[in-house]
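Tokens in:
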């Protein structure tokens, strides 16, 4: 689960960078990267939820 959290933190940092570039500079490519990262973050959040529930059962 630790690896999962580290991967999420990495993706969130990239998302923040790209989202800021889109908002501040109007960078369309950064917006595309941010949207892609948001989908990956969503998948990892679902995995985290499953892993967390499993860990709480043990």
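Residues out:
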């Amino acid at each position: 689960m630790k690896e999962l959290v580290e991967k999420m933190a990495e993706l969130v940092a990239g998302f923040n960078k790209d989202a800021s570039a889109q908002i501040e500079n109007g960078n369309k490519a950064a917006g595309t990267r941010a949207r892609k990262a948001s989908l990956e973050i969503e998948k990892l959040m679902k995995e985290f939820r499953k892993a967390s529930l499993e860990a709480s059962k043990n």
